[in-house]
Every structure is written in C-alpha cells, then in structure tokens.
C-alpha cells in the first residue's frame, strides 16, 4: 500500500497565491523600473528624448532647454546606443522646481538613447534649433536577421 499524503486544500491555495504573488512582484519590477531623471553626483539632468524609426533612418530628438549650443556632444557608445551631452548656460537648483527637501544643482544634460534597429553611426547628422536637438542616423542596408 502506498502511503501518499494528500495535500490539503488550504495548502494548495496557499501555494497558488504564493506563486501569483512572486509573479506579480517580478512583473511590477520589470514594468515599473522608475528612477530619477537626475544624477546629483555628476550634476546632470536627463532630457526628454524620443526615438522615431522610419524606413530610411532613425530620428532621435532631445529637449535641451537653456544650453550652450557649442557644448553639445553626440557620441556612439556602441552599435545600438548613443550618448548625448550638453552644458547649461546657468546652474539649475532643486528649489527652482519647487523641491525643498533636497539640495543640489545641475550644470549639464546627459542621456543614453537605445537605437532599436541596425544603423550606420558614422553617417550620423545632428541639428539644434530652439532648444531641440535632432539626431538623424541612416539605417544600415543589407544586414542579416538571425532566425532561430
């Protein structure tokens, strides 16, 4: 005779809810990875950025108010990421945003932008007008897509 222990209904329900709780925690962590849009150590703010993918090119726009246009640097970090840096004309402090419980000031903008498709970073063009930086990167032609 086998002496298999039957699992209790409440034990089954407890295990079921534990599984759902861990699943929900993992989902929330991955979906809502919030972080501040500033770095106090390097005195940088992260600008608002947008990536638009068209048939021929990828257009990255960044909102860079109150900056000196001569300090704009756009560099390719790797094959699918660019870094945008720019120095501000004047320092901005937390209390100007109405934040009184933190101290610090910012002197520049910096962000990393992920480019979702293969592009030719060597032919990157940038244009700055009225506080908006526009970076145009032509898409790479003749690349292979790996199929598993």
Structure explained in plain terms:
16% of the residues lie in helices and 39% in strands. With 148 residues, it is α+β, with helices and mostly antiparallel strands. The chain has a domain at 38-138: Immunoglobulin-like. The strands form 2 sheets. It has a 5-stranded mixed β-sheet with strand order 1-2-7-6-5, with no helix packed on it. Strand 8 and strand 9 (132-138) form a beta hairpin. The radius of gyration is 24 Å and the shape is flat. The model has no long low-confidence stretch (mean pLDDT 85).
Assign a percent range to the helix content.
10-25%
The total of beta strands comes to 9
Q: What sort of overall outline do the alpha carbons produce when their principal axes are compared?
A: flat
Name the strands of the widest sheet in spatial order. 1-2-7-6-5
* Top CATH class of the domain at 38-138: Mainly Beta
Radius of gyration, taken over Cα atoms and rounded to an integer in Å: 24 Å
CATH architecture of the domain at 38-138: Sandwich
Largest sheet, described in full? 5 strands, mixed
Report the sheet-strand fraction. Answer: 35-45%
Please report the number of helical segments.
1
Give the mean pLDDT.
85
**Which fold does the CATH topology of the domain at 38-138 refer to?**
Immunoglobulin-like
* Element-level helix/strand string: HEEEEEEEEE
The secondary structure category is alpha+beta
Termini Cα gap: 49 Å
Low-confidence segments: none
């Amino acid at each position: 005779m086998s002496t298999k222990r039957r699992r209790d209904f409440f034990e089954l329900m407890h295990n079921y809810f534990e599984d759902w709780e861990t699943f929900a925690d993992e989902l929330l962590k991955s979906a809502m990875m919030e972080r501040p849009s500033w770095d106090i150590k390097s005195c940088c703010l992260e600008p608002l950025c947008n990536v638009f993918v068209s048939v021929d090119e990828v257009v990255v726009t960044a909102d860079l108010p109150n900056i000196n246009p001569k300090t704009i640097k756009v560099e390719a970090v790797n094959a699918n990421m660019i870094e945008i840096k720019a120095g501000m004309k004047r320092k901005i402090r937390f209390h100007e945003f109405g934040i009184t419980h933190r101290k610090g000031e910012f002197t520049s903008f910096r962000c990393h932008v992920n480019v979702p498709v293969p592009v030719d970073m060597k032919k990157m063009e940038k244009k700055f007008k009225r506080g908006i930086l526009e970076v145009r990167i032509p898409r790479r032609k003749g690349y292979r897509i790996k199929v598993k």
